[in-house]
Amino acid sequence: MPAEPAGAPAEARSIVQALRMALIEEMERDPSVFLLGEDIAVFGGAYRVTEGLLARFGESRVRDTPISEAAIVGAAVGAAMTGLRPVVEIQFNDFLACAMDQIVNQAAKMRFMMGGQVTVPLVIRAPVGATGRAAQHSQSLEAWFMHAPGLKVAFPSTPYDAKGLLKSAIRDDNPVMFFEHKLLYGGSSPGGKAKTAVDGLGEAFRPAPAGEYVVPFGVADVKRPGRDVTVVATGLMVHKALAAAAALAAEGIEVEVIDPRTLVPLDRAAIVASVRKTGRLVVVSEDVLTCGVASEIAALAAEEALWSLDAPVVRVSVPDTPIPFAPNNEAAVIPQEQTIVRAVRSVLP
Amino acid sequence: MLLIRRFEEKLYHLFSTRDMPGSMHQYNGQEAVAAGVCAHLSRTDYITSNHRGHGHCIAKGADLRAVMAEMFAKSTGCCRGMGGSMHIADFGVGMLGANGIVAAGVPIAAGAGITCQVRGKGQVSVAFFGDGAVNEGAFHEAVNLASVWQLPVLFVCENNLYGFSTHYRRTMRITDIADRAAAYGIPGAVVDGMDVEAVYEAAGAAIRRARGGGGPTLIECKTYRFMGHSRFEPSSYRTREELEEWKAKDPLTRFAESLRRDFSVPEAEIGRVGEEVAQEIEDAVRFAEQSPDPAPDDWRRYIYAG
């Protein structure tokens, strides 16, 4: 198997390629970095992120595991506490539920409980998003981990950010939950049927160049500047928000789209500054509404920018429901471009 | 063993006579396990522990002053007062922590085993856990993982018969937990956990095998806790007869007899060790008492690294 099945690209135009590029660069830079997860070595990963890495780095650094999420994460915690830098792949973020103790009670709190004696430099990568696979393979669970102090939470929306954030995550001395949207991977699914939203995203889906750069945590990116309404969005929702912004621009409504890129730490200053400028805030995320990502950002606006607001904050998230299987039902609960357009209109006079 | 016993007795006295913070799970009766296993380990080897972790911590060579100060929630505690009894840890000697979640330390020990394996310097990792832990998924997943990767890990089950109040025979239909080793394709051994020499022998064989690349072993130490499950818990589920029967097997008494009988250690020498231990305990208590509390906002310092 060639080290790079698609040939070593000068730039990564998909998130799958960008993540693989980040892994290769970091594994070459630091021999303590290793990978573990289900089907990541021989098969190359359910979404092909680790394709070719077994041949390149060997079995000790690219480890296929049993289907044992608690042991995968637990072993990664133990390895991280003793000097290695594990990068775990959990096949679907829904399966994180099987490893919750090790993530929330162990990885997140270990340094704290032990009075700063130890660091836990651990990355857990996990795909999120609804892609027609019903309620146990479609969730977006990033908000769960915003509620566990000690964890950091990253969620890139472009190849450029994916590579730069993953490199930052691997170098971080804290446990990082790293969420990847399936429809933004730009690769093929396990069945081979490519289901992707990346075609037609255009310049907003910024490629990742080869070579060294990092995207720091806690620095939001203004994906589109605008004066009328602030839309904060994450993951795939960034691109839906950009599409909505383009449609609204035709009516003379200028939407500013902010991608926090990391939810922990959250670039509170960037969001507050934008809301102070526009006076209007819509938050779009693919997790469920209650206690979700959008709730936290709405609370931030209420606490720090209330007197700048000219309209109530609107949250656009999945209603409080499991993700349904039927495609028309799934589409109805996931925020769509038109949902965002309506939400933006609702906060305008 | 004696240091652990006196430490626990002192703690019981402190909790009985003063307003000590939190709770604790005491190790009295099980000392032979921690001492017999850790006698084979150096500070570059790793251990993980459970909620009953004082003995493991002391046997691994943790600084007794810092351990005692942690019991007092002082800023000089090994966890700076942020962990307490259930999270006692000393990374300087490879003690990766007691743990408040049953079986959670087992996969962590497997992970430390990855580090040992990758480094290739003959280090080993040991997980201490109770009979209650072997019905947790984390135990099964971790032992299997260690087996598949032939990690240098020793899994030490301290079967003290009760998971809190429930006798282990009411939670599994096997007599010997070591039988479960066969399911993962690794050696298993049953050991008299009240006999430090027996524990030492069995652990030595397993640790030598692990250091040599022979993979993990599961050792079940049959033992008993002389105290309640947690602070002042009255153990109404156990009979006085059962307790007395096990106290007759006290590992400290047995080992002292062995020292006199088999090794001709003079009485004065045994007495001298007792005095040294007593002094060490009193010194640790004094240190803890004289240490400052953490600042009220010290919690801010440890949430994130960097």
How would you sum up this structure in a few lines?
Chain A is an alpha/beta fold and 349 residues long. Chain A has twelve helices and 14 strands. Chain B starts with a helix and ends in a 16-residue tail after the last helix.
Can you tag this structure with a few keywords?
heterodimer, A: 349 residues, alpha/beta, Rossmann fold, five-stranded mixed sheet, disordered N terminus, B: 306 residues, five-stranded parallel sheet, 10 helices, 7 strands, 41% helix
Description:
The complex is a heterodimer of chains A (349) and B (306). Chain A has 349 residues and is α/β, with parallel strands linked by helices. Chain A has 2 domains: 11-209, Rossmann fold, CATH 3.40.50.970; 221-346, Rossmann fold (3-Layer(aba) Sandwich), CATH 3.40.50.920. In chain A, 34% of the residues lie in helices and 18% in strands. In chain A, the strands form 3 sheets. In chain A, strands 3-2-4-5-7-6-12 form a 7-stranded mixed sheet, sandwiched between helices. Chain A starts with 10 loop residues before the first strand and ends with a helix. Chain B has one domain: Rossmann fold (3-Layer(aba) Sandwich). Chain B has helices spanning 2-17, 31-38, 54-59, 64-71, 105-119, 137-148, 196-211, 240-247, 251-263, 267-290; strands spanning 46-48, 125-130, 153-159, 162-163, 166-167, 188-192, 217-222. Chain B is built from 10 helices and 7 strands. Chain B is 41% helix and 10% strand. The longest helix of chain B is centred in the C-terminal third of the chain and has 24 residues, at 267-290. In chain B, the strands form 2 sheets. In chain B, strands 1-2-3-7-6 form a 5-stranded parallel sheet, sandwiched between helices. Chain B has a two-stranded antiparallel sheet with strand order 4-5. The chains are: A alpha/beta (349), B alpha/beta (306). Chains A and B meet through α3, α4 and α5 of A and α5 and α6 of B.
